[in-house]
Every structure is written in C-alpha cells, then in structure tokens.
C-alpha cells in the first residue's frame, strides 16, 4: 500500500479492476496507465497473424477444431 502497487483501472467487463502497478517509480516522469488488461483471448488472432504468419484459412481451421 505504501508504494501504491495496486491500482484500479476501468475495465470493459466491470466498472473497475485491480491490477499491479509498475514497481519502478520515477519522480519526474510518472508511469501512465492508459489501457486495462486484455480480455481472455483478445489478442489471439493478432498474434497468430502478425507473429506466427497464419492466414485467415488457418485461423478458421484452428477455431473450428477448438484449438483456439
């Protein structure tokens, strides 16, 4: 509590959610928290496309097979 390690952010599924703050504290440039944590699976398709090079057909196959 003394180091303000727990903060509250507005979240899409509820009004507020508690998250762990950045442990590094800067006096001149404080950390800004602009986005809440992602929802479960929110970035899955982006990761598959951009990082793993999967196309829409492969992603659809993985969805249909309940792999993702």
Tally of structural domains:
1
For the report, how would you describe the main beta sheet? 2 strands, antiparallel
Using the alpha-carbon principal axes, give the shape.
elongated
Count all strands and give the number. 2
Distance between the termini: 38 Å
Strand content: 5-15%
The gyration radius over C-alpha positions equals 18 Å
What does it look like?
Strand 1 and strand 2 (16-20) form a beta hairpin. By secondary structure, the protein is α+β, with helices and mostly antiparallel strands. It has one domain. It is elongated and about 50 Å long. It has helices spanning 44-51, 56-64, and strands at residues 6-10, 16-20. The termini are far apart. The chain has a two-stranded antiparallel sheet. The chain contains two helices and two strands, in the order E-E-H-H.
Keywords:
alpha+beta; 25% helix; 68 residues
Summarize the structure.
The protein has 68 residues and is an alpha+beta fold. It has helices at 44-51, 56-64, and strands spanning 6-10, 16-20. The chain has one domain (6-32, 41-64).
